[in-house]
Amino acid sequence: MTSVERPRALLAGASRRWVRMLPWAVALVLCVALLPTTIVVLTADYGLNGAVASALAVAQAAPLLLAVVRPLHAWYVVVAADVAGALALLTVDFEARLLWPFPPMELVGYVALCLALGLRERRRTLVLVWLATAGANVGLGFAAPHGAGARDLLLTILGGVTLLLSGALRERYEAQRRLAEQETISEAERGRRTLLEERARIARELHDVVAHHMSVITVQADTAEYRLAALPPDVREEFTSIAATARESLGEMRRLLGVLRSEETRGELAPQPGLPEIGQLVEATARTGAPVDFTPCGTSGDAEVPEAVGLSAYRIVQEALANVVRHAPGAATRVALSVSRPADGEGGARLTVLVVNGPPPDPPSGPLEAGGTGHGLVGMRERVRLVGGTLDVGPLPDGGFRVAARLPLTEEEFT
């Protein structure tokens, strides 16, 4: 059993509460103002019977509250009541200066109703509403008690203008809403594409690291029978199987890399950088005029740094220093690498990568780049997640920026 969706009130999607309540407030004010006014005018000025005038007033004013939720249903009631009121006025003798077939109160209520219609209904419905209004207006004009005049078409003119303006306003709002939705979707797609591109780039870089280890395994397995004397036949066969499996794995990795690499991306022949190359990054940044203080890892008591961790540390420092040059030129920067073990004895050794910069000496009047690549923080987070570490980035109170990554050095923690 399907549930019927309840119609929403006009402006129900507005972010501010007072805007959502505005249609109800306007409808209530019009209803309270027009109801007694219509009764008084129809009885005092037009000479209509009090009971008939009261019934017409209720039928013409009360549906304005319904128009907030269902303007088309309210229009059916109001149009029928307005036509009935015009026919009822033909039974009394009123002065020629008074408006007919629709007195001023009915014009005000109908214009408000047309505004609600224009903000809710489609263009085709608005055209049909106006044609029905014009037809009723022209048809009643043939029975005009004092002769037809231009002012007898006021309802058609005012209603048409209101429908046109409110319909255009609604279509403009819908276009802006769809544009905002499309921009949101496009931004999400750009973020997703950036993430996928960065993951593919990381995979391409790690290919060299893994391929090196697999190649070592292959060479060791192939040369075991020559390096180790008197190997039993079954052991020699085992080494041969290990070498074959390693070569097959290398082939599968190359095919996988071919999928990850785009047509525009060429193969990288240079070995992937690691911790020893971070000093070169610092020197290159210092040559741009930014003072950089570099504290490398100590040599005593440090755990061995895996190549994947070293590569991640290098890329994190590279992106952090590039951001300093782009967004805080000339700012004092500190780069520190350290290996530590938790004081509680739980967990293995960790490599801490810290890049902290202060505020630029001369803040630029605008951004130095019109737009970034979008790979900075995304790449940092992906690399840290890859090795099972943690990343802490954010601005400092003095206007600087801090990047702190903690990368585990034991295989049990990041596999």
From TrEMBL:
Positions of the Signal transduction histidine kinase subgroup 3 dimerisation and phosphoacceptor domain: 198-263
Gene3D superfamilies on file: 1.20.5.1930, Histidine kinase-like ATPase, C-terminal domain
Transmembrane segments: 21-42, 48-67, 74-92, 98-119, 126-144
Keywords, alphabetical: ATP-binding, Kinase, Membrane, Nucleotide-binding, Phosphoprotein, Transferase, Transmembrane, Transmembrane helix, Two-component regulatory system
Catalytic activity: ATP + protein L-histidine = ADP + protein N-phospho-L-histidine
InterPro entries: HATPase_C_sf (IPR036890), HATPase_dom (IPR003594), Sensor_HK_TwoCompSys (IPR050482), Sig_transdc_His_kin_sub3_dim/P (IPR011712)
EC assignment: 2.7.13.3
Molecular-function annotations in GO: kinase activity
Histidine kinase/HSP90-like ATPase domain: residues covered: 312-410
EC class: transferase
Superkingdom of origin organism: Bacteria
Identification of the protein by name: histidine kinase
